[in-house]
Amino acid sequence: MSQNVLLLTNEVMEKMKQYYHKSLTTTPQGAVFRAKTSNVVITAYKSGKVLFQGKHANEEMDKWSDQSNVVESKNPKHSKSSSNTLYTPPDTLFTASHIGSDEAGTGDYFGPITVASAFISSSQISLLKEIGVKDSKNLTDEKIIQLAKEIAKMRIPYSLLILHNQKYNSLQKKGWSQGKMKAMLHHHAIRNLLTKIVSTPYEGILIDQFCEPIVYKKHIASEQGQLPNKTYFMTKAESYSIAVAAASIIARASFVKEMDKLSEQVGIELRKGASKLVDQTIARIIREQGEDVLQTCAKVHFANTQKARQYLS
């Protein structure tokens, strides 16, 4: 039985408690909640540690790993454990020419995972800020699409990769966790981008952190990959790095477009996220078109697949 631990904020733990509300069980001493599903037990402690135990511990942890952070960090720019200071970006990186990498779609039941890496020169930073480039989580889909077009006009070098649902589900069945999929997507997007800017100097590569750097290195090493020099990791990186913010917008714009394509393909508006409304949409698809259709448009190992069955009885 595998087990993994994440360090999460009280806010995220409350979201988790609501997410697993139908699976809640007796709360042990010192815990905020405990949930037990068919394949994993999740225990959230008041210390901020969340323990995942069971057959699918890795997969379940991956749903929340992108929100992992050091609780009550006094310096949000460097909210990582002291053992990873080698991967902490220098403050000078944010005003220098650098590469940023971010992803979209990881927590959404429907749709692919999209990853973008973008190179921003120091001379472009002020202009990108001026046109409104910032954390995509604080932007509407319409604004993201608009900004992605503006970024394209500036001829900013970038690499965009899309992991479509059929391939995602195939890799998951082979034992790949979502964390490994994300790591490999970032790795290949960065490698692709480096071939485009081969003679251009840059200060470093910043990845929006979704797992500990040592875990990321382990994932890419399992596929014979190596971490490029001057690669840094940082949670909430898009709030500090214009390169990561631009990559986030490119990735999110691609995800939105892919969701529109899938909705048209299925003939049903596919909702973002992983809410009850998503469960109801899943049930409608199964009822009208059969469960196999989900392989083409969804991340079928998410708990939503099972939750949707209550709407079929």
Describe this structure in words.
The chain is an alpha+beta fold and about 325 residues long. The protein has helices at about 10-20, 55-60, 125-130, 140-155, 165-175, 180-195, 215-220, 240-265, 275-290, 305; strands at about 1-5, 25, 30-35, 40-45, 50-55, 100-105, 115-120, 160-165, 205-210, 230-235. The chain is globular. It starts with a strand and ends in a 6-residue tail after the last helix. Mean pLDDT is about 90; it is low at about 70-85.
Helix/strand layout:
Layout: E1 2-7, H1 10-19, E2 24-25, E3 31-36, E4 41-45, E5 49-54, H2 57-62, E6 98-104, E7 113-120, H3 125-130, H4 141-153, E8 158-163, H5 165-173, H6 178-196, E9 205-208, H7 213-221, E10 231-234, H8 242-266, H9 276-289, H10 304-307
Parallel strand pairs: 6-9, 9-10
Antiparallel strand pairs: 1-5, 2-3, 3-4, 4-5, 6-7, 7-8
Structural category is alpha+beta
- Count the beta strands: 10
Discrete helix count:
10
Q: What is the alpha-carbon Rg in Å?
A: 20 Å
Distance between the termini: 33 Å
Strand order of the largest sheet: 1-5-4-3-2
Shape: globular
Low-pLDDT regions: 69-84
Fraction of residues in H or I helices: 25-40%
Which characteristics define this entry?
single chain, 313 residues, alpha+beta, 5-stranded antiparallel β-sheet, 37% helix, 17% strand, RNase_HIII, hydrolase, nuclease, endonuclease
